[in-house]
């Protein structure tokens, strides 16, 4: 597996040094003439901002458009899922009354779909977010299908019927302690 890391050229990172980014990351201009088997667009702590106010929104839209012809399949995680659902399908996000945080049980809705084939009928997954997607628009959209959902946390996995786009609203990538650490941090801040 050959992995490359992209950075947003239009964003100045507050948490990672420019030297590190220059050494290990490429810009979209460096890869835009290439083809890829997969792309992961991750979350970002900007979920409470309108998409248009995110300083790299235009660049991200270019990448999402490019991915439709140059990437076999793209996985969008948390805010990345919300951004892509809005950009590609007009499904907006909204702020919830309080943060959704915890580990929730989810039901596989389409067990014969390749991505979830072999999953147990129920599985648990962590969520940590202030915003959610317009579920009624997802369910009504002819190009989207819900793959797994939770009574408490809502839609967790969904995808485009052509397999080009996969969306995960939670965080399967969390290790054992980050969710607890994030919860404790939020509690100290009074959230």
Describe this structure in words.
By secondary structure, the protein is an alpha/beta fold. The protein is 28% helix and 31% strand. The chain has 6 helices and 7 strands, in the order ααβαβαββαβββα. It has helices at residues 18-24, 28-31, 57-70, 79-89, 135-140, 178-188, and strands spanning 36-41, 71-77, 93-108, 122-133, 144-150, 154-160, 165-168. The protein has a 7-stranded mixed β-sheet. The radius of gyration is 17 Å and the shape is globular.
Count of DSSP E strands?
7
Q: Please, what is the average pLDDT? A: 92
β-sheet strand percentage? 25-35%
Helix content: 25-40%
Question: How many helices?
Answer: 6
The side-by-side strand order for the widest beta sheet comes to 1-2-7-6-5-3-4
SSE order: HHEHEHEEHEEEH
Structural class: alpha/beta
State the distance separating the first and last CA atoms: 40 Å
The geometry reads as globular
How would you characterize the largest beta sheet?
Answer: 7 strands, mixed
Q: Rg, please?
A: 17 Å
pLDDT < 50 runs, ≥5 residues: none
